[in-house]
Amino acid sequence: MTAFLRARAIPGVETVTADGRYLRSIALDETAGTIEVRRSEGRDARTLEATISLADDSRLPEVVERLKVMFDLAADVRAIEAHLSQDALLRPIVARRPGLRVPGTWSGYELAVRAILGQQITVAGATTLASRLVKRFGDGITPDGGDTVPGITHLFPSPERLADADVAAIGMPRARALAIQTVARAALQTPQLFEPAVDRAGSISALRALPGIGEWTAQYIAMRALRDPDAFPAGDIGLIRALAGTGGVRPSEREVARLAEPWRPWRAYAAVHLWANDAPPDS
Fold first, then answer.
1. How many domains does the chain have?
2. Cys-Cys with 167: which of 94, 153, 177, 186 at CB 3.0–4.6 Å?
């Protein structure tokens, strides 16, 4: 999970250190702060510890609950892996990384913007655009007490800032910039659209209706923000690469969707395992 988050970290807003600590800035209404999440150094290395810097202590329980969702702590990974391992194709892939969960997000709105930035370009290219976006439209942050957190300099731009911003000025196609403005306005009007949902199908349908959000983007948001365990972006190039057959022949999006049918209702977890299997050895 830390490798996944490190590769997609938004410069200035979040970072993953060499020893696997996840740090980021957070905002709850007008209250800004920082968090650090790390593996416990105690006897039970399966637990996570968090350091939360926030001026309003009354919001701490809310932060803790959001972190539990973000790191998918409620997942019954044994049951999920038992199901996925019934598939001969997935069995060795799942066995390589027991306990792997679906990385969530601090903010579904933020994730939606980041997903649009990543459309049709590499992860590295999207990170460059995200850095420009943050520097141009994000507010700077200094944690309480004046201490600085290495690598954390800004809050992610709020929906209010991006709703009418000249996003294209950071060097991206105007159509995609307009899509980011649309997402920001939707986050202001219907914030629950980007949050874990009971009616996931309805939320995914509403996301698809937004200009600039196609099936891949909607499914990616559903995986990480709506927490849909069966969301599956079948057209993702990483999944297609990971499922390439003999001789490196890549399946079509339709073939990927067909292969994934037996993985229901845990296709999101299958996707994460396949992405991890497709990642470079040093990630």
1. 1
2. 177
φ, ψ dihedrals at 176, nearest 5°: -70, -35
For 188, the domain range is 2-71+105-224
Question: Phi and psi of 204, rounded to 5°?
Answer: -65, -40
In a domain, 24, yes or no: yes
Mean pLDDT of the 157-178 span: 96
Q: Decide if 168 contacts 186 (C-beta within 8 A).
A: no
Structural domain includes residue 250: no
Distance CA 224, CA 113 (A): 13
6 pLDDT above the threshold of 70: yes
Pairwise CA distance, residues 173 & 265, whole Å: 36
User: Cβ atoms within 10 A of the Cβ of 184, count?
Assistant: 23
Q: What residues act catalytically?
A: 236
Looking only at Cα atoms, what is the longest distance across the chain? 58
CB < 8 Å & 24+ apart, contacts of 238-243 = 238/274, 238/275, 238/278, 239/271, 239/274, 239/275, 239/278, 241/278, 242/93, 242/274, 242/275, 242/277, 242/278, 243/89, 243/274
Cβ atoms of 193 and 160 within 8 Å: the answer is no
Crossing angle of the two packed helices 215-224 and 200-208, in degrees rounded to 10: 140
Q: Is the pTM of this model over 0.85?
A: yes
Residue 217 lies in a domain: yes
64 located within any domain: yes
Write down the pLDDT at residue 141: 87
CA proximity to 84, closest of 100, 69, 103, 104: 100
CATH number of the structural domain spanning residue 26: 1.10.340.30
Which residue, 246, 7, 269, 27, is CA-closest to 141? 27
